[in-house]
Design brief:
This protein is 82% helix and 0% strand. It has 130 residues and is mostly helical. The chain has one domain. Helix 2 packs antiparallel against helix 3.
């Protein structure tokens, strides 16, 4: 009977220890998820430079790694969109300049003809050039 009693006490102690360990681990995971939630809220408001850092031996480290990977991909896409937008702006500026120069010349010729600044053969040459 004495051995059975010792065995039961050891088993109860072991179960209590395991229960306390599980509660401690659960609390640790809750803290990690809460920290991840805070960082994600911060990212959502526009601070995408912040990353979720977890030690590799934690349960949530795989999740944190995947979220960070998604954020990096998102930042890369934004960078490509900004580069494409800047390229489009430069193209529009270039096209605008390329169109403006011949139009200015054309307006100059037609304005000279309209205001009768040129006469005779020059008059017809200006119209022909325009």
């Amino acid at each position: 009977m004495n051995n059975v009693m010792i065995f039961l006490i050891v088993m109860i102690a072991f179960l209590i220890f395991m229960l306390l360990y599980c509660l401690w681990k659960l609390n640790s995971i809750k803290k990690q998820l809460s920290k991840m939630d805070e960082i994600l809220e911060d990212m959502q408001t526009g601070n995408s430079k912040q990353k979720i850092l977890m030690p590799p031996n934690e349960i949530t480290s795989s999740l944190a790694y995947k979220i960070n990977k998604m954020v990096y991909a998102y930042e890369e896409k934004i960078m490509h969109y900004k580069m494409a937008d800047e390229g489009n702006r430069q193209l529009m500026t270039s096209l605008s300049h390329d169109l403006r120069t011949p139009l200015t010349t054309l307006i100059g010729y037609l304005d000279a003809v309209h205001k009768k600044i040129v006469t005779g053969n020059d008059y017809y040459d200006y119209i022909e050039t325009a």
